Amino acid sequence: MAKRIDVNDLNVYYSKFLAVEGVSINIEPKSVTAFIGPSGCGKSTFLRTLNRMHEVIPGGRVEGQVLLDGDDLYGAGVDPVTVRSQIGMVFQRPNPFPTMSIKDNVLAGVKLNGKKISKSDADALVEKSLRGANLWNEVKDRLDKPGSGLSGGQQQRLCIARTIAVKPDVILMDEPCSALDPISTLAIEDLINELKNDYTVVIVTHNMQQAARVSDKTAFFNIAGTGKPGKLIEYNDTAAIFSNPEQKATEDYVSGRFG
Amino acid sequence: MSTMTTNQNSTSGNLTPPVRKRNSLAKGKLPKWAIWAIAAGSIIIGAAASTLTGFNVASFAIYSAIIFLVAASVITTVAEGKRRGKNAMWTYLIYAAFIVAVIPLVSVLYTVLEKGMPGMNSHFLFSSMNGVTGAVDNETVANGTPVVGGAYHAVMGTLLITLWATLISVPVGMLTAVYLVEYGQGKALSKAITFFVDVMTGIPSIVAGLFAAAFFGMILGPNARMGIVAAVALSVLMIPTVVRSTEEMLKIVPNELREASYALGVRRWRTILKVVIPTAISGIASGVTLAIARVIGETAPILVTAGIASNINLNVFANWMSTLPTFIYYQILTPTSPTNIDPSVQRAWAAALLLILMVMALNLLARLVASIFAPKKGR
């Protein structure tokens, strides 16, 4: 299922403003890649271009190529909806649908698209997805209760369950733990390690320890100044980035002398 | 003396605080009964002052209120300080404003109940004015028998015309709001629509009635008066309200929910239909119900579009119809029997009571609908 992502010289714009410039990166399948960097350096913006969520914002557009196993996401005639069903996304703040039960939240990707699913298939999918998100044991007795009644950490795992229920090839996570307490964060990090067996995971994080703990490779983004575009400074194995970076800026950032 | 006490205390234990007579953080405080005493005093002085100028209830209330406001704030200032005095003055001013606002409401309810209850019975509810002439009313008054004739035709007319107005304006209004919020952000067309909706909000109801009458007159020939024409006139009044309330509700749906849905590979129209609208439906439903409550009491646009009828007409596509407001208007302005107007007045008040009850029921329904559709809480 997991697929690789290759980005060639990607420029990301908000209307006329160039937000991210000249990013080229190769993300291996079944790996965890972390994006780190100071606030406003464009790492979240870049992440959103990987499943065409960037263009949901008015004026958002890109130049360059993003290849998913060799297929250009931005090629002519590509439907962004197809792209998003193959590349799932988990957001910074947990956002379960308030009108739906826990079960319906997991099935949202199926039900919102109006696909018919038999009750036994639905139950199996709910259990599999919730088990995949390490949430099954906590919610199996209250699947019909509203998803908004869960704790923040549980809500975030519910959002992950909802994402893996549509069986994507890649899962993007935009600071998934920034609104969570340390125990919930640990639960999510454990989950990311398990997800790696089946999916390609890309995670944006402000927490460098987290990047060091969960990721195989790390990309450091930086920005020269306000109003300037963000750039990919260095991309390497996580161990190399944290212990032996090639660039001075990376070393400054990971050792805390900057940002 | 007090120094000595402190010294004695300090020998037994250094940690005990010095004994003081008065807390330096505290200020004077009026006892609780004081404010009631001031109120009673104000009422007595108010009554006396009112008697001097010839006693009546209005001047008595006004004098008492003013004396109480002044006395309460002055006494509080003296006893508790300047800030608390100001606080007391504004508190009682706000209470006064509240009472002034509630008086007309209570008075209207009381009057309508008092004058409407005698005429409110099953005969009034379930019969029309068909065949009720001035002669019948004269006989009723002469013999002292119960009033004949009712508002059934007007109740049905009100329900049918409002139902059709709702059927027209809810889809139009909701779809307009969906366009404005979901598709038209920042576009010239949406700015134009917002402007015209604002203009429509201010259209006088009689103008909406004339528009509908003229519009259908053009198509169906002059004197094309029927229920559906009135429904169109009312929907002209309802659409801007529905657009506005739906727009506000859709705007407060968090963008995160839309993004969550897009990220699952759900199309935009399905996102709007299955995520955005269900999240906002409770607010939309109560907005729609309040819009209905606003137009259900319109009189002028109904008169020029549906005319007036005394018989039961359940077909909005043919013949004239009455609604409760036009029924009241006609009973008061042209009583059925010009010499004995009492039966007509009684019918008018009973119809007014019925109309208030219908509007109240709609408001309660709006709350019920809102709580039923509200996103469920609980664990």
Strand content of chain B: under 5%
Total DSSP E strands of chain A: 10
Shape of chain B: flat
Q: Quickly count the domains of chain B.
A: 2
Fourth-level CATH superfamily of the largest domain in chain B: MetI-like
Instruction: Describe the oligomeric state of these chains in a short phrase.
Output: heterodimer
- CATH topology label of the domain at 5-96 and 169-254 in chain A: Rossmann fold
Q: What string, H for helix and E for strand, traces the elements of chain A in order?
A: EEEHEEHEHHHHHEHEHEEHH
Tell me the CATH architecture of the largest domain in chain B.
Orthogonal Bundle
Number of strands of chain B: 0
Give the topology string of chain B: H per helix, E per strand.
Answer: HHHHHHHHHHHHHHH
Please tally the helical runs of chain A, counting DSSP H or I stretches of 4 or more residues: 11
**Biggest sheet features of chain A:** 6 strands, mixed
Q: Which ranges of chain A are low-confidence, i.e. pLDDT below 50, for 5 or more consecutive residues?
A: none
Helix amount of chain B, in percent? over 70%
Measured on Cα atoms, how large is the radius of gyration of chain B? 31 Å
Describe this structure as you would to a colleague.
Chain A: It comes from Glutamicibacter nicotianae. Chain A: Residues 5-248 form the ABC transporter domain. The longest helix of chain A has 14 residues, at 119-132. Chain A is α/β, with parallel strands linked by helices. A six-stranded mixed sheet of chain A has the order 6-7-8-3-9-10, sandwiched between helices. The mean pLDDT of chain A is 90. In chain A, strand 7 (170-174), helix 8 (182-195) and strand 8 form a beta-alpha-beta unit. Chain A has helices at residues 43-49, 80-86, 102-106, 108-111, 119-132, 136-139, 152-165, 182-195, 208-214, 238-243, 248-254; strands at residues 5-14, 17-27, 32-36, 60-68, 71-72, 87-90, 170-174, 200-204, 217-223, 230-237. Helix content of chain A is 34%, strand content 25%. Chain A has a domain at 5-96 and 169-254: 3-Layer(aba) Sandwich (Rossmann fold). By secondary structure, chain B is mainly α. Chain B folds into two domains: 28-117, no CATH class; 134-373, MetI-like (MetI-like fold), CATH 1.10.3720. In chain B, helix 7 packs antiparallel against helix 12 (268-295), helix 9 (205-220) packs across helix 10 and helix 14 packs antiparallel against helix 15. Mean pLDDT of chain B is 88; it is low at 1-12. Classes of the chains: A alpha/beta (259), B mainly alpha (379). At the A-B interface, helix 2, helix 4 and helix 7 of A face helix 11 and helix 12 of B.
